[in-house]
Structure formats: structure tokens, C-alpha cells
Amino acid sequence: MYKLTYRYGNDINDKSIFTKEFHNESNMRTYIEVGKDKELTVIGIEEVKNTLIGYARVSTEGQNLDRQIDMLVNYGVDKRNIYQEKMTGTKSDREQLNKMIEELQENDIVVIADLTRGIKKYQGLIKYHW
Questions:
Q1: pLDDT, mean of residues 106-111
Q2: Helix, strand or coil for residue 7?
Q3: Per-residue DSSP letters for 77-97?
Q4: Beta strands per DSSP E along 1-130
Q5: Fewer Cβ atoms within 10 A, N terminus or C terminus of the chain?
Q6: Active site residues
Q7: Which residues are bridge partners to 20 per DSSP?
């Protein structure tokens, strides 16, 4: 992801500064080229790093998390960034899910291997944290 900081025109006294985020460099460069017709002046470009964070859960102690963990790792999540728990979905206080939510940083991307793993809780996560 890239963050572009820019203004229009060359008047340094004009305090109107804008920022826009792009998912890839190509789209950002196109935006800059098109903006030159409007006197877009680039102030700065920052590459924003995203960290993949995984969450895996099964309902009982007897179940195995390996399939979900393998899926997360294959997607690119570092094993050290996978929060795991064995807990029924009827419990709303999930220690590892709550810990993950508390530790999320700006630009982190949460990857969930199996959306049946407590969809109501994830809806709250999406609503309140992104």
C-alpha cells in the first residue's frame, strides 16, 4: 500500500494538503500523471507495510487446528502472528480473539481461515476496527 501526500499548484502558502492511499504503485503513478494537468504537486510518498494477522478456532479441545493454521500459513501469515483457541462459539468472551483485537495495529490485515468460526464476533470486528 502507498500513501501519497500532495497539493494542487505551486503556491507554498496554500496550506491545502491532501493524502490518498493506493493498493499498488501503478495506480498511484497513474493518479499523479493525471493530476499534473491540475498542477498536482507531490509532497511525499510513503510505502505502508501491512502485517498479516491470523485467527484460528475450533469448538472443542478434541478438535485440531492444524488445517486452519496450514491455510493461514499458506496464505502468507507468519505462524507467530496466528491467534488460536479451542472454545465453543457460544462463548462471547474469547481470550485470544479479544487479545488479537487489542493488539491490532494500523494497516494490519486480519485473515480468518474459516468464517464459520464465530461470524457474529467478526462482524463486530469489521464494524469497529476498520
A1: 87
A2: strand
A3: --GGGEEEEE--TT-S--HHH
A4: 2-8, 18-22, 40-47, 52-58, 82-86, 109-112
A5: C
A6: 59
A7: 4
